[in-house]
## 1
Amino acid sequence: MSQFIESIKVEDTEIFLLDQHQKRVNETFSYFGKEVSINIDEIFKSLKHDEDGLYKFKITYDLTGKYRTQMIPYAMSEIANFQLVENNSYDYSFKFEDRKELEKMKILSKAAEIIIVKNNHITDTSYSNLLFKKGKDWFTPKTFLLNGVQRQSLLKAKKIKEAEITLQNLSEYSHFQLINALNEADDSYSYPIDRIKNLPKTSEAN
């Protein structure tokens, strides 16, 4: 049976984006025709977590409602380089625990992290959504693999905009950053666009 995960930010005993995480869990059960779900808030409270600091609260669950939890200390790290990797068939519309295909792409790339290209369009890294900077504004690709909770939250707050980001227009952006439930949008954690090792050259037509 398929296993799914939720990775949730917990800082100084406070849980973040709970409603968005619960909505995604409920939608997963509903999509597969299951009436049962799990209650993230109840699970978190049952742990009686009272530690200060930043943690990744990981819930692994299946469609019968069985689950296991981990509370993992978390620290953001800088990534040395990125590589664009084409995969037109990969689907990650649900947050599956099985990440074998993602890890395979990453190993074959020989880069610290990958940016997956699907049908010529920029999507996500192996573990995050992406933001790209043009001028003073930040944009996120319309062509995501997984519509992450942080991405949804930033769009709802109108802090970012959606854009069609392709191999052809990628060089129009100056910087990019990675966002997910643990990593919020922060200019100080952005990378120059040339941190992508195989960044396409601007076409002569431009």
## 2
Amino acid sequence: MKSVLLRLDSQLLTVEKWLAGSLLGAMALLLVAGVFFRYVLGTPFVWSESVSRLLIVWLTFIGSSIAFAEKKHITVDSILYFLPGMVRPVIRMCIFALVAVTLGYMTYLGYLYCLSVSRNTSPMLGISLVYFSMAMPITFFIGLLHIFVNVFLKRDFLVFESALDEI
């Protein structure tokens, strides 16, 4: 079971990185094409702002999930430096619990939000707003999986990056 979860975590991270790169590339191409069509050809894309908004929403949440997997979210841990060494793991477990509860709750709220906007459509694109809001519950859940794998399977009790271990 452990190897299956580790492999799943690794594969999800690979997919997330690929998606983030693809979304960023698509946004860049959309920007260049939009400028070209607006200022050179004189026929702007009226839908480009809505598509850009959709891409940036997904890119933001996917990037946050990647940061959880790689422990790249920043933290202010200078207070831990002054605490005794045996207290630090307890504080780190409390931080993990707080982050896990927050991500779980945000997953739930994201799901409720998806339900609440499921009948609404984007005026410009004509697609359901669920495509925008699905980023929240999906990536919060995957981020939660990443930190559980880091803490319980990899036995790395740092949820966020820390400079303390280098001191």
